[in-house]
Each structure stands twice: as C-alpha cells, then as structure tokens.
Amino acid sequence: MRLGFLFISAALILGGGFSIMAAAYGLGGFVEGLGVEHLQMHGLSSLTNIAILMLGGVMVLATLLTMAERKWSALIQNRVGPNRIRVPIPGLKNNALFGLPHIAPDVLKMLSKEAFRPKAANKFLFSLAPMLAFGPVFALFAIVPAGPTLEVFGNKVVMAAANPDFGLLYLFAIASLAVYGTSLAGWSSNNKFALLGGIRASSQMISYEVGLGLSLVGMMIAFSTVRLAGAGGMAESQVAYLWSARLGSFDIGLPQWGIFLQPLGFLLFFAASFAETKRAPFDSPEGESEIVGYFLEYSGMQFGMFMISEFVEVVVLSGVLVTIFFGAWWLPFGNEWLQAQGLHSVLLGAIYGMVFWVKVVVLIFLQLLIRWTFPRFRYDQVQNLGWKILLPVGLANLFVTGALILWDPSLRYLALFGFVVMGFFAFLTLTPPRQVRQAEAAADDHGGHGHGGGHDDHAHDAHALPSSSH
Amino acid sequence: MANLTHHDDHGHGPIKQKQLIEEDIRERSYVPELVKGLAVTAKHFWKNLIGERDANTNVLERKGTSGVVTVNYPEEKVDYPDGYRGLHRLVPREDGKPRCVACYMCATICPAQCIYIEAGEYDSGDDAAESRVIEKYPKQFVIDELRCIVCGLCVDACPKDAIRMDTYTHTPSEYNRQGFVYDIPRLLKGPAVTHPSDPWYKRGNSEMPDHQHKEAHTRITAGNAALAQRSTNLVEVVKFTKP
User: How far apart (Å, rounded) are the C-alpha atoms in residues A31 and A11?
Assistant: First the structure.
C-alpha cells in the first residue's frame, strides 16, 4: 500500500518533469519560429522559458516545497505531519493525499490576512523589502539551463530564460542582492529586534560571500568558461567522459561531473550557498523559534514573500548545484547512445529535462534533510566558518586545481585528486573518533589487559594525532 | 583547518581544559559528523515513509515497521484508564427510568452548582409498580457540563447510586453553549444497575428472600466480598462499555 503510493508519486514527478519539458521545447520551437518569421529576431523562446521553467517549474516546486518541508520534517522526526484536510474526491475521500490540500488554505490565509505596518516604520522601504528579498532569488534561475540546446521545428531553442556570456558572474551579482531585502526589512520595521536580525543577516552575508565566489573558481578553470547554458557552457561540457568504455553501441564511463572534479569546491559552495538561503543551520538572521528575526513586523502576504523566497531559493540552489556539479541534465552514461537513437528533438529534450528535474528534486531532499538535521550556527561561528575555513580552504583548492589542470588539461589528474579528497572524507567518516577509540581501549583495559600497557597507548595516541593533523 | 583550536577561547585552568572535548580532525572538520547525522535523519525518513503503520492505540505495543508513534486522535482514541471520571450519566433502573429519587444531595454538594433538579411526587394512590416504595422522582435533572469541574462529589454524595461518571468519554465539543446543558434524555444512558437493597425488592410480592435486604449496603464494594459473593446473581455492577 505504502509502496504503491511511492510509485505513484515517483511517476508523478517523472511525468510532471517530462510533460513540462515537452511543453517547453514544443512551445519554445513554435514561438522561436514565429519570431524568426514575423519579427526577424532570434531568442523569442526565452519568453516561453520564463513562463514554463520559472513560473511553471520553479514556482510550482517552491509551492509544493512548503508542504514537503512540513511533511518531510514530520517523517524525519517520527511525526505524521499535516493530514487533516480531506477532499471529497470519489475513491480518495478519506485520503490525506500527503497533506497536499493544505497548500490551498495556507495560501488563502496568507493572501487574506491584514498586511500590518507599524506606525513608525519607513513606509516605502517597508513595502519594498519583501520584493527585494523575492525578486533576486527568483531571477537567479534565469541562467540555469533545464535541458540541452536543440533544434526544434528547425529553430534553435536554448532551454534557459537567458544565456549571457557572464553566466556565473550574474549568479554571484544577483544572489548577493537578496540580502538588501533582508537587512532593509530589519531596518525599516523600526523595531530593535528586527534590526538585530537584519544585522545578523548582513554579517552572515559578509562571511560567506567570499567563500561562495572562490569555491566556484575551480570549476570555471576546469571548463574554461563562466557560462552555464549553450554550447561550450559548463552544462554541455559535463557530458564528456574522463574514462570511458563501450558495450556495443552503449557507452559507459565516468563523466566529468563537477562533483568528481571538485568535491571540495562542492562542499564549500554548498555550505556558502546554504548560508545564502538563510535556512538552518545558517538561519541566525531569523531563528524563528528563539531569537526573533528580521521579518518580525511583517504579516500576511508580505511575510509570505519572505517565506516563499526561501523556498524558491532552495529550488534555484538545487538547479545551480545540478548544473555545475551534477552533470546538469545528462545521464551518467549512455548519452551518446541516446542521442544516436534519432528521437524527435521534443522527445529527447523532454527526457533530458525530466532527468534534470529529478536531480533537482533529489538535491532539494538533501537540502531539507540538512535543514532538519543540524543545529543552528551561532553568529560568531558563521563568521569563523566563513573566514577561517571556507576562505583558506577555497584558496588552497583553487591553487591545487590550477596546478593540476596546468599539469594535465584532460582533467584526469584533477579527478584523481577529487577521489583522494573523497576517500579522505570517507576514511574520516568510517573510522571512529579518538575519544571513542580511547573509550574502547579503556574498556579493554578493564577487561583484563595490562593496565600499564593501555595507559602507554593513550599517551602515545594523544601526542601522535594532533601533530599529524597540524 | 584542523588546528583551529578553541584553547584560546576557554580553557585557562587545567580543570576546564580537561572538560573540553578533545580535538580530533573528525570533529574539527565537521564533515564526517555531519554525514553521520544525515544518515540518522535519512534513516528515520525512509523508515517512516515506507514502513507500515500499526494503528494500535497502545503505542508501546505497536508492531509496525514505521517509527511514527502518533495516535490519529479523532479516528483513533486511546482508552481512558480505569476509574476515569468522564461525562455524567443518570443510571437507569431495569425498567428504564432513572434510579434518581430527587433527594438534592448531588445538587447540594456540587461546588460548581451545575446541577439543577426539579422534584416530582408519585401519586400514592396510583397502582403503578413503584408508587408504594418510591415517593419522589426528578421531573427535571439538568447538568451544565460547562460549569462542572469534574470533581466527582455528586457521585460520592448520591445515596442511590443514581449518578455516575463511568462513561469513559469526556464532554464532547458543541457549537453553542446550550449544547452543553444536559437534560434527562441525554443523561439517562448506559446499562441498568440493580442492588439487592433496592426498595422495590422489599415489597411483599418480591421473590427475594427477606434476609438479603440489607439497607446499609447500597453499593457492592470490594471490601464487602461476602455480600458480593452472596448476591452475584442479582447484582450487576456493570462497567460502561467503552466506545
């Protein structure tokens, strides 16, 4: 019964991604053709991409996320989660439908509540702040390609709302704008607690921003580009294999995905961009449960803008991560075989787009898992992390990456170094910490082994490990 | 990054130094501990997502693979414990009328003054079965459950075992205050209760032998096991079946 529902939801995700992308490619090709024919201009398909990818894909996913966050967190914490609303659909009358019907009253509540504004607040900035928080986050997705560039009905369709040459720089520029909304919200509310929240947000932004930029430089060097979409962009480059083999016409191998080339860069970027989303463990700007946040004075849909911008940011961050580090829309193997099948371009694009959205959903799950696992970093701990860990490690990663690429432009040495890093972390994860080992040794001592020998072991351990880690 | 010690922040004295977590690159580099934490939460997530849920309201005896311990309240209800003071009921006699004789004991002792009784008198000339042994009956018996503080004094005060709180339900919610005012038709429910000392057994045409009529024992208690044993066939101290 439960597994049946699981299959249904998996089918819904796959089918949703497939049909959205089929519509995006079909309509994009059609509109592009209209533009070329009547207006003599290219790139009209950006309009359909905005409508379908950003409004249809990102916003729908973000809306679903409001419920997924509540339901998934419930499952993580051994709870049931929202399940009270039952819709009288024949056959599903007493089914909570995963709590999805709760979205409608949530939205209605947000929209119909009074948008309260304190008398002493700065009216203009107070109304501007939610838009400033939401706008940049939403605009980020414009450069994320959700599928390959294909010829549809004889017209070239780029599956991103925009494909500027400055690609990732746009990402950095726009992403750091979002903090204006946050700190303005804190300041303009004329409330000291909101102001403190806004200040925490700005200090956090200063802490992670440098690490955020540095962490991606390695990827820019590796692919010699800052573009995401289009030919020669980061997304297209990741289809190539580092090592490959063939099974008949089917190709297998290790693709040059960012996660293999730059596992350290991925960790740094993930941490920094998690701080960007202002979600736990980096939610000290709001910290809704203990310290009051920057949106203290907001209510109704103005608060809703802050909330939905957080969820949009989760989706967008997943999209960016997938594009840069997880091979965008490419399958891990069999891409050459699939492209050689002579499928209609709409069908091929829909399949690849579906792969992209599935990867996005998986990363969204990872982000929610992280958000519900880790406790909040304190104000000063975020700064320590940003300046003392992310920045130096990012610099070191940059130098090593540059040297390895100089040594071997085929990126294979870089991948080998990536495996060494991953193996190092795997080793650390799988071996018990020193305290545990000491406790085990102490237990062995009591179990009848010579006490003196055990004591010597301790002293040796205690001296040896810190010096080796320095 | 491993040598970012926090010695400078805290430990000055040797005692404090000892209490600090000793440094290990596994903990200082965050990542391994984070991965372990993620594994724990992910395990809970998938277990609860895929696992079969056991709806047993006794959570400790659940056998399902899901770790969720919630009881879905309106659909599933945990039984109240024995002796739970719940919603009142007026105890019926075998003939379906209330055992109450309108003595006002409960209304008098009630600290919240939530019981209203209007007494009626049986016509002594009437040949109806109970008229010769019972003089009064409640014309109206009303409890305002919103005022009731559920202290149970009315149950203790009643000399006729006519009011009980053994329904094992709490007062259900209503849409208006008048709905919480319970009158005889709503209060009179549950299994009938008979005691050997009930006055109608004293009548001449009773089939009961005289020596069993002991007025003092209006209730069967555990302390009076001999009497309970003697009159098992007559006494029906029924516990209200839980819904």
Answer: 29
**Shortest distance, CA B81 to any CA of chain A (angstroms):** 25
Report d(CA A126, CA A74) in Å as an integer: 34
Q: Which amino acid is at A255?
A: P
pLDDT confidence of B124, banded at 50, 70, 90?
A: low
Give all domains of chain B, ordered by start, each with its CATH number.
Answer: 1-77 (no CATH), 89-230 (3.30.70.3270)
| Whether A77 and B25 lie within 8 Å, measured CB to CB | no
Task: Give per-residue pLDDT as tens, A200-245.
Answer: 999 998 889 888 989 999 999 999 999 888 888 888 888 889 888 8
Please indicate if any CB of chain A lies within 8 Å of the CB of B55: no
**CB atoms near residue B129 (< 10 Å):** 12
**Residue of chain B whose alpha carbon sits nearest to that of A271:** B31
A75:B48 CB<8 A? yes
Q: Within a 10 A sphere around the Cβ of B144, how many other Cβ atoms?
A: 16
Cα angle: A63, vertex A68, A70; to 5 degrees = 110
Please give the structure tokens belonging to residue A336. 């050459």
Cβ separation of B52 and A435 shorter than 8 Å?
Answer: no
At residue B23, the 3 state secondary structure works out as coil
The per-residue b/e assignment along B57-91, b for 16 or more CB within 10 angstroms, e otherwise, is eeeeebeeebbbeebeeeeeeeeeeeeebbbbbbb
Domain residue spans of chain A: 2-407, 409-459
User: What single letter denotes the amino acid at residue B159?
Assistant: P
pTM for this one?
A: 0.81
Question: A315, A369, A292, A367: which is closest to A61 by C-alpha?
Answer: A315
Query: What type of residue is A417?
Result: F
DSSP at B79: P
Rounded to the nearest 10 degrees, the angle between the axes of helix B31-50 and helix A60-76 is 90
* ipTM here: 0.85
Identify all chain A residues contacting B44, using CB atoms and an 8 Å cutoff: 75-78
E strands, chain B, are: 89-90, 115-121, 136-144, 163-164, 181-182
